[in-house]
Amino acid sequence: MKKFLVNIAVFIPLSVIAYLFLLIFWGEIVPDKYRINLIYKSPGYGHTFSRMKEAKEAPLTKVLFLGSSQAYRGFDVRYMFQEEKIFGFNLGSSAQSPIQTKMLVNRYLDSLSPKLVIMEVAPTIFGRDGVESSLDLMANDVNDKETLKMALKTNHLKTYHTMIYAFYRDWFGRNEKKVEKMLKGEDRYRKNGYVEKKMSYYKHTNRYEREVEFSEKQVEAFNDILAKLRNSKVPYILVQAPVTKGLYNAFTNMEEYEEFIKKKGPYYDFNKFMNLNDSLHFYDAVHLNQRGVELFNRKLMDTLRLNEL
Question: Is pLDDT above 60 for 203?
């Protein structure tokens, strides 16, 4: 029995080490399309690499934007604060859920030191598993203890595998010389975190009814973010960015969502404040085109000034 326990004690750590080496080898050698449970794309989609690199060098920030692609494609910080001559930064990322937002807030709030946080709160963020965004951020930002906490909260095999590989690449400086093109396809990275899409227009498709879903771990992370902002004495507002009318009206429990979100802090639903045209002001059901972005940003600035924020 004693010999058996000794063998087990030796076998387990050796197996773990062998697994880690095999995982790293798999990430280095095997083409992306065959790495189903290890997805590492850097630079990736949405210019996350450039945004996070700029965030590390950004000066103190007056207004910080958080959220999903609706944030980094919807808040054009180049022009929003020209009149006030203040610095804003957009820390959005693709499919960002509250779990990932919490990680970014813990990582960047002190260095950016914002005087106001504007958080994009699309109804879909609370039902996400967070896997897509976790993979994006691990491949395109630094990795530290916040990465580990995010991975444990997301709790998915892809996230664990990618985290191990991402730490390996960080430790061995594999990304230090990496440069991302500012123009990729129809996307152009602008300064301060914003991505501008080549002008295009939405072609209507039928939207099927759906419910706003609430994941307990996402709601918990959301509450943690707001608690940290309050404890840091950083005021915040919650913003629902415009989407097409077809998508907005497809949610069958929007009233339940609004009742939930209004309890969390100052909340503005710009779908109710604006009458945008689905065909003229969007390039898909979720994202504004540049014409729509400019109209939305003007309305947001008017709202901020009206409420003395």
Answer: yes
Show the domain range for 89.
47-130+180-308
Q: Which helix (H) or strand (E) holds 304?
A: helix 290-306
CB of 176 within 8 A of CB of 39? no
pLDDT band at 209 (very low <50, low <70, confident <90, very high): confident
Location of structure tokens 């610095």: 87
The CATH number of the domain where 104 resides is what?
3.40.50.1110
pLDDT band at 220 (very low <50, low <70, confident <90, very high): very high
Q: Within 10 A of 5 (CB to CB), how many other CB atoms are there?
A: 9
Give me the mean pLDDT over the 217-232 stretch: 97
- Which residues have a Cβ under 8 Å from the Cβ of 183 and sit 6 or more positions away? 189
Q: CA-CA distances (angstroms) from residue 132 to 118, 241, 297? A: 22, 21, 27
Q: Are the CB atoms for 138 and 99 separated by under 8 Å?
A: no
